């Protein structure tokens, strides 16, 4: 194929198979976890919060142990198929359990069903986007067969810089996708920052801050917010206890 070493094709295909296992396991686990936690919250079904004595065990604990175990096994034994596929799937399970409580380890408090807790769904959906891009072959750190290594490295650094600016402007989703899709992070970096973002608070004068507030009024909801609602529920619902 043009631009791809034919001898490397089986290896590239194998990498995508592993990414496919991780992505599939991540999606299934994330959806199942959200369904179970919602059932617990509503008091439906046989599911209950996991406890050891009086200590509530969050499901991110299982995820962390899975990530540690699969990572250690991969680096220690470097298994071939089918064990590599098993490790990839278990890694996806662990990543889903851990990222589903991203807000907990970000805020260091149980905010699962609050507005702050919606950042867990944001993190999981971003992970799905990144996994999907990797599955189709997008790689921001791949070799460019048509250019020199210095030019390729410079392009990666510049794109990462744009992505960082986009994150500081309160546009993390566009920033992450922009790491894989050239110039998307640049578009996000050039657009107006959200008024609550670090970029706006530190760099905007009152005139530009007022423009940001008009562009992003309090309570404004986007298509992304409605997508997050599907998994996180409305953030104003009363809290009925911690997730499992």
Question: What topology emerges from the helices and strands here?
Answer:
Blueprint: H1 9-42, E1 51-52, E2 55-56, H2 59-77, H3 83-99, H4 102-107, H5 118-135, H6 149-168, H7 172-180, H8 184-190, H9 198-203, H10 206-215, H11 223-232
Antiparallel strand pairs: 1-2
Task: Describe the protein in words.
It is a single chain. By secondary structure, the protein is mainly alpha-helical. It has a domain of 138 residues. It contains eleven helices and two strands, in the order H-E-E-H-H-H-H-H-H-H-H-H-H. A two-stranded antiparallel sheet has the order 1-2. Strand 1 and strand 2 form a beta hairpin. The N terminus is likely disordered.
Distance between the termini: 48 Å
Proportion in helices: 55-70%
In round numbers, the mean pLDDT is 82
Strand order of the largest sheet: 1-2
Task: Label the overall shape.
Answer: flat
Helical/strand content category: mainly alpha
Low-confidence stretches: 1-9, 236-240
How would you describe the oligomerization state of the chains in this entry? single chain
Percentage of residues in strands: under 5%
Number of strands: 2
Summarize the structure.
The chain is mainly α and 244 residues long. It is built from 11 helices and 2 strands.
Quick tags:
244 residues, mainly alpha, 11 helices, 2 strands
